[in-house]
Specification:
Number of strands: 4
Structural class: alpha+beta
Order of helices and strands: HEEEEH
Bound molecules: zinc ion
Distance between the termini: 57 Å
Largest sheet: 2 strands, antiparallel
Mean pLDDT: 84
Strand content: 15-25%
Low-confidence stretches: none
Number of helices: 2
Radius of gyration: 21 Å
Shape: elongated
Amino acid sequence: MANPRRKNSKARSRNRRAHYYSRLEAPTTMECPNCGETKLMHHACPACGQYRGRQIVDRKEIA
Ligand SMILES: [Zn+2]
């Protein structure tokens, strides 16, 4: 079986994880331009159901 010759150093692991460690928690949020509610980026607003100025989800479906 192929085997790694050396254990990865802490610096090597941390260096690799530097790209996503900051994103493990707290997804990026923004204020909905329509109703001002806090919502996830690139997602339809949970309050008014709009995304990029278009009605995507009917409010009656949610509430
Ligand atoms: Zn909204």
